[in-house]
Design a protein that fits this description.
Layout lengths: L1 H7 L9 H35 L6 E4 L4 E7 L3 E5 L5 E5 L3 E4 H15 L4
Antiparallel strand pairs: 1-2, 1-5, 2-3, 3-4
Length: 117
C-alpha cells in the first residue's frame, strides 16, 4: 500500500518549468488543429463546391444509394431521373457522389493497375 502512495504522489517541493507546460499544451493544440479541424474544413469546402457544380446530365448516387441522372437543377433541389418513367425531386445535400467523374477515375486507376499483356 505504501508503494502505491509513493507512485501516485508527486514529489514535494519540486515544480516544473511553466514554459514546458505551455509548450506541451500549445503542441497539443497544433496537433489537434492539423489532424482534426483542418481536414474537416477542407472536406466541407470540397463537398460544397462539388454540390454547387452539379449540372444537368451528371450521373449521381444519393446518400440512400439511389443511382440516377440529373434532368433539372434548381437552387437547392435536383430532379433526378431514376428510370425511363420515374423521377425524384431531392435536395442537393442528399447527393453523395458523382458517377461520371468517379467511374472515369476508377477505370483509369484499375487500367493502370492491370499488367499489360
Amino acid at each position: 500500500m505504501e508503494l502505491l502512495y509513493t507512485i501516485l504522489m508527486a514529489p514535494q517541493g519540486q515544480e516544473g518549468n511553466p514554459a514546458v507546460s505551455f509548450m506541451f499544451i500549445g503542441g497539443f493544440i497544433l496537433v489537434f488543429y492539423f489532424f482534426m479541424i483542418r481536414p474537416q474544413q477542407k472536406k466541407a469546402k470540397t463537398q460544397k463546391s462539388f454540390r454547387s457544380d452539379l449540372k444537368k446530365g451528371d450521373k449521381i448516387v444519393t446518400i440512400g444509394g439511389i443511382h440516377g441522372k440529373i434532368v433539372d437543377v434548381k437552387d437547392n433541389t435536383l430532379t433526378v431521373q431514376i428510370d425511363a418513367n420515374s423521377k425524384l425531386k431531392i435536395e442537393k445535400s442528399a447527393v453523395s457522389m458523382e458517377m461520371t467523374k468517379g467511374v472515369a477515375a476508377t477505370s483509369t486507376s484499375t487500367a493502370e493497375a492491370l499488367p499489360a499483356s
